[in-house]
Amino acid sequence: MRIMLLADTHGVLDPRVADLARGADVLVHAGDVGAGIADELAGLCDDVLIVTGNNDPDDAPWPESARRALPGGELVVIHGHQWPARSRHDRLRRAFPEARAIVCGHSHRRVLDTDTAPWLLNPGAAGRSRAYGGPGGIELFVDGDDWQPVPRVFEPQPRRR
Length: 161
Description:
Strand content: 25-35%
Structural class: alpha/beta
Strand order of the largest sheet: 3-2-1-9-10
Shape: globular
Number of helices: 3
Number of domains: 1
Largest sheet: 5 strands, mixed
């Protein structure tokens, strides 16, 4: 099973990230989606899971957090703005101790913290806004108990003048 993890598009999905996400078994977006992106994601994958971020409208149709049972464990998705950066990972682990992995966004910084359970996975920004190191995401390959997160990062696009 191939799960594409994205976050922080803020209304712009890099086309290279979209191409990578196309045809995933599940496409997960960890908030700060922006206008038009949910429809674009729905065209890439039949199973899209989105949570709301602090920059999404209050009336956004997505939940604040979501859980998905997968072979080998549970995936929890939350934007992460609910906790300060310094203690975010510890607090997420305390809030969701039963999860195999927690996907969060908000910082725009890609993180693969797999040394401690549950894992913390931040796909970084999939658009133009503060895409540190370039836009991208994380492909999570799930085969029973074997989970393999693989970061995918593209060169930043030149700024338009």
